[in-house]
Specification:
Length: about 475
C-alpha cells in the first residue's frame, strides 16, 4: 500500500510522508488502523489520484473545508492532508490554516512522540525523520511538546487533554515543563467544544488504568473546568478527630477495579458516578460519625444533568448508568443474613438484565485495604449471587412481565381505562414481588377479582 502511495505521489511530483500516530505506534508495537499521510502539496489531489487507480475498491471522502481526504482501504483508514501551519487567536481554537513546509507542519504537532515521519519518496523511501528526538522520548516514555509548551497548549488547549490521555493510555509521564504549562493554561480548556473534550476523556476512561489520567486531570486543574462534580469529590473533612475517606480516590479505586473486569465504557461511567452525590449528602453526627444518606438516590438524579453538560448521549446508556448508580447499595443490603425473599425479588425486578453488571460494580466497590475484610465482603456477595440465582430460578422475576394486562382487568370488570385499573395492576405486581401470590396467571386472576371487589367493582357477566 505504501508503495502505491509512493508511486502516485511521484507521478504528481509531490513529497509524501507517513506521520504521527501510526509511526509512533509502530515503535510502541501497538496495532493501529488509522494512518496519517502528509503531502507537501495538495493532499486531496493525491487521494483522488489513488482512488482513480482503484475505482471500485476504495471509498473516498473529501472534506474540502479542511483540505483533507479520507480513503478507506481494506481495514485501513488513510487520511491525506497537505502540510500546513495554523495560527491561533486568543479566544478561539479555530485556527487560520495556511500551506507550509514539512518542517513547519511537524513543529505544530502536539508531542515529540507524534512528530515522527517516514518518507515515502523514491529517493529516501522508508527513511525516518525525527527532528524532535521523538524516538528517544518514546523510549523514555515521556510526553513533551516540540515547541515551548505554553505556546503549544495555549494555541490549542485540547492538547492538554491529549497529554493526559496519552499518559493514561500509554502509561507515559508528562515532562515537567509541559506539566507546569498545563497547570498555567488549564482554564483555556473551556474554549474547546465539549464533544472533543469527551472524545479524549472517554479514551482516558477506556485506558487500562483510568485513575492515571483522572488523577492527572485533577492535579493539573483541568478537571474542575469541565467536570466540577467529579472534582468536588476530592477532599477529607474531619470533625472531632473523625475523618471520612477521600471519595475521589475511592472512586478511582473502584473504577480501576472495575476496569480489570470490564472494557465497557458505560459500566465504567457508572463506577465513576456511583458516589457522585456524596459531597451534597455529607453529614456529621456525634453518635454515628459521617454519613452520606441518600447519595445513591440524589446521585442517580444528577446523572442526567452531568450527561447533558458533558454532551454525552441522553439515551438508554444514560438510563443504564442511572440505574446502576441508584441500585449500587442494594446488594450490600441483601448480604445481611436475615434478608427476605421479597427483597431479593424486588432487586431482580428493578435491575432486570443489568443485575450481573450491578453485582460486578458492587464487587469493584470493595476498596478496603484489609485483605481479610475484602475476603469477607466478597464471600457475602457470593451468597447474594446464590440467593439471586435461587429466587430467579423459582420466580422468574428478572424479565418480569405482568401476568395480567390492563385490558384483562378492564374486560373482567367491564370498565374503561381508569384509576382503579392502574391500582389493581400495581397491587398484583406488589403481591407477586412480596411473595403473597405466585407469579402465575391463575393466582393473579384470583387476586385481581379480590382487589376489584375491594374497590367496589363488579365482575362482568362473561368473566370467569
Ligand atoms: P490515536 O489515533 O491513537 O488516538 P493519534 O496520535 O494518531 O492517536 P490523531 O488524533 O489520530 O491522534 O492525530 C494524528 C496526528 O495528528 C497526531 O499523532 C499528531 O501528530 C497530530 N495531532 C492530532 N491532534 C492534534 C492537535 N490537537 N494538535 C497538534 N497535533 C495534533
Ligand atoms: Mg490516529
Amino acid at each position: 500500500m505504501f508503495e502505491i502511495i509512493s508511486e502516485a505521489a511521484s507521478e504528481l511530483n509531490v513529497k509524501v510522508y507517513v506521520i504521527g500516530g501510526w509511526v509512533r505506534d509502530l515503535f510502541l508495537k501497538r496495532d493501529s488502523k488509522d494512518i496519517d499521510i502528509v503531502v507537501v502539496g495538495n493532499g486531496i489531489q493525491l487521494a483522488e489520484n489513488l482512488k482513480n487507480k482503484f475505482p471500485s475498491k476504495h471509498k473516498l471522502s473529501v472534506f474540502k473545508n479542511f483540505g483533507t481526504a479520507m480513503l478507506k482501504w481494506d481495514e485501513w483508514e488513510i487520511e491525506f492532508v497537505g502540510a500546513r501551519k495554523e495560527s491561533y487567536r486568543q479566544e478561539s481554537r479555530k485556527p487560520i490554516v495556511e500551506n507550509a513546509s514539512l518542517e513547519e507542519d511537524i513543529s505544530r504537532r502536539d508531542f515529540t512522540i507524534n512528530t515522527l515521519a517516514i518518507s515515502l519518496n523514491k529517493d529516501s523511501y522508508g527513511k525516518l525523520l525525527d527532528v524532535y528526538c521523538g524516538v528517544e522520548d518514546i523510549n523514555k516514555k515521556v510526553l513533551k511538546t516540540p515547541l515551548d509548551p505554553d505556546i503549544t497548549f495555549s494555541d490549542d488547549p485540547l492538547r492538554m487533554l491529549r497529554a493526559v490521555r496519552f499518559a493514561s493510555q500509554l502509561s507515559f509521564s508528562i515532562d515537567n515543563k509541559s506539566l507546569k504549562a498545563i497547570k498555567r493554561n488549564a482554564e483555556r480548556i473551556k474554549i474547546v467544544a465539549m464533544e472533543r473534550v469527551m472524545d479524549e476523556f472517554n479514551k482516558i476512561m477506556l485506558s487500562e488504568k483510568p485513575s492515571i489520567g483522572l488523577k492527572l486531570l485533577r492535579n493539573t486543574g483541568l478537571l474542575k473546568h469541565f467536570f466540577p462534580e467529579l472534582d468536588k469529590l476530592h477532599g477529607i473533612d474531619s470533625v472531632n478527630g473523625k475523618a471520612h475517606k477521600d471519595n475521589f480516590l475511592h472512586t478511582l479505586k473502584v473504577l480501576d477495579n472495575l476496569s480489570e473486569l470490564s472494557d465497557d465504557l458505560w459500566i465504567r461511567w457508572a463506577a465513576l458516578l456511583h458516589d457522585i452525590a456524596k459531597p451534597d449528602t455529607k453529614k456529621f453526627d456525634n453518635e454515628v460519625g459521617w454519613s452520606f444518606h441518600g447519595h445513591e438516590y440524589l446521585g442517580h438524579l444528577m446523572v442526567e444533568k452531568i450527561f447533558r453538560n458533558l454532551k454525552l448521549p441522553l439515551n438508554e446508556k444514560m438510563k443504564y448508568v442511572q440505574k446502576l448508580v441508584l441500585l449500587h447499595l442494594r446488594p450490600i443490603a441483601l448480604s445481611e443474613s436475615d434478608v427476605t425473599d421479597s427483597a431479593v425479588r424486588r432487586l431482580l425486578f428493578e435491575a432486570g438484565d443489568d443485575i450481573d453488571d450491578l453485582m460486578m460494580l458492587c464487587e469493584a466497590d470493595i476498596t478496603s485495604a484489609n485483605p481479610l475484610k475484602v475476603k469477607k465482603y466478597l464471600k457475602n456477595f457470593e451468597q447474594v449471587r446464590l440467593k439471586l440465582k435461587e429466587i430467579e430460578e423459582k420466580d422468574k422475576i428478572r424479565n418480569w412481565q405482568p401476568p395480567i394486562s390492563g385490558e384483562d382487568i378492564m374486560s373482567a370488570f367491564n370498565v374503561g381505562p381508569s384509576r382503579e385499573v392502574g391500582m389493581i395492576k400495581k397491587a398484583i405486581r406488589e403481591a407477586i414481588l412480596d411473595g403473597k401470590i405466585l407469579n402465575s396467571r391463575k393466582d393473579a386472576l384470583e387476586f385481581m377479582f379480590q382487589e376489584g371487589e375491594k374497590l367496589g367493582l363488579t365482575r362482568a357477566e362473561n368473566s370467569h
